[in-house]
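Dear U.,

For the methods section draft, I wanted the exact inputs and outputs in one place so we can describe them consistently. I've listed the two proteins in the order they'll appear in the manuscript figures. Please don't edit the token lines directly; just add comments below if something needs changing.

First protein:
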Amino acid sequence: MKRYNITYVLIALLAFFITSCSEDTMDSINKDRNDALAVDAINELPAVEVATAFGTTGTDLAWYSSVYIEHNAGTFGQLMTADERLQLQDGSLFDNNWNSIYNNLLALKDIREKCGKGGPEEFNVNILGIAQILTAHDLAIITDMWGQAPWTEALKGSQLKEPKYDKQSSIYAAIFQFLNEAITNLKNSINNPNASQVRIGGNDYYYGGDANKWIKAAWSLKARYFMRLEKVNSSAVDSVLVCVANGFQSASDALVFTNYEDQAYGNQPWYQFLNDRGYLSASQTLANAMQDRKDTVRINNYFLTNSGGELAFAPNGTAVESQQGDKYSIGVLENDPTFPTVIMSYHELLFLKAEAEARKGTNALTTLNDAVKEAFGFWKISYPQFDQYFTDNIAPKYTADPLKEIMIQKWIAGYEIESIEAYNDYRRTELLPLSNPKNNSNGFVWRLPFVASELSANSINVPKVDVTKDKIWWAGGTEK
């Protein structure tokens, strides 16, 4: 029998183990186990929910909207520039927002594919329904702010680097489809226990996995988006009332993120923004409207005194430079690290109902009363004389111009917490008493400029728009 030199055997064995390790074991060692390639949908859910609250709804888009809609005046840095209506076509302003929203839409797509038909978690229709609702919301933010946007060809990565821009009308059709499918899936998760393998619980920061509440949220968002189309869809107002009846029934149903913490990395974004930059001050325009309605109670609850201990409001468009409440007052959101982020409130739904009733020619005064009272409740304002206040100061203005007063009351109620919605409402109705003189001299911002990254990487498809002239489709503009 042939005998092998032990040295050769050892060398061969060593070569085998080295080769085996480099191809298998080393591949495993080089993987970051904290950044897994495959994650169960239930473990992705917290991240997309936080991103929707903090990144989509809570940061720059809300801050700039508050300046455009004169909830606030920008009194320092970029927001002072926005208040003076300068650099309005600058594509670099909203790059981070655009990219972060699309990143969240990509994560939501991954959840939908996992939990959708043929996916590895296709029976988790409860998680699928939640992901569809969040997709509808984030997609609506994109198209409401920019108009046309990539969607049918979006989220394909290197497979398609220059996606086409879809018309807003087709994006809205997708939004309603997501919400309708979400309602169906969430109902299935309730009616068929076998349809959902996972009980969500604490991984759902909004409702703790309560499918019934998510269904109400879907109907409520449908009401919002149908009202957005009242200029372009003759049946939209009727649809609003149908959706309202199936939506939130009380403030406890509202879609609100409350999981902020009073520590450096857990604060809500408005508080962080004040402490980091301090670019915003309380608006004279808003204060004038509230003072005209003798709204002293809310004035004292909305605003903080300046460094001199006085309530002082910044004149929109002409304020002097000031930071962090030095010369002017600031809003209470900037002083409360855990103030909730509102995705959609119960009082917004009631304001939508009031607007729909007024547009149909019926008396909406009772609904308006309910909406304003609920808004007081959201702000935790106790006002035993509310009914008399409403009768004396709001009802007469409603009688004089029902629709205008509904929109003004909604604007006041949404101070900072719903600035994005107020911006959408004004562009749709133009019924708010804006007073910034730069709106006339330099132009009002009817839509956001397309972002620098798209202008660089996808210039062939980016629509050419002038943000001071070209309204978006649902506001009466044309689809280019």
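Second protein (the one for the lower panel):
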Amino acid sequence: MSDSIILKSATKWLLPLLLVFALVLLLRGHHEPGGGFVAGLTAAGAFAVYGMAHHGARFSQILRVTPTTIVAAGLGVALSGAVAGWLAGETFFQARWTQLGETLAAVKVGTPLVFDLGVAMVVLGFALLAFEALEERHD
């Protein structure tokens, strides 16, 4: 792979832009297409572009955690979203909602968002593990 100054410069802007786009996809997924899976893939794509530009820089250097930790935390977050209804005396995966704020800008947040966040983390972690394995094999 060539040492491209253009790609390195572009990733300075592309990484945060794609991560914000992944967040938009995550939040949009409850009312329109999108959600945790596609948000995780978009975030993984952002880190893949960064890795290509910086010759396989370890993702744990950027994130400060290992991809395995992201997968484990994502499983815990997804499980907490799934169990919340059950702990409240309803069925497993029963959605629970709460309202944040009392003003005109009040936001309803529910367990489906928590579950989607966990899915996004698991997908991101597994994709980063795959990218690192491919990079090690390439060396």
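Candidate sentences for the figure legend, describing the second protein: The longest strand covers residues 97-100. Residues 111-138 form the longest helix (28 residues).

Thanks,
Y.
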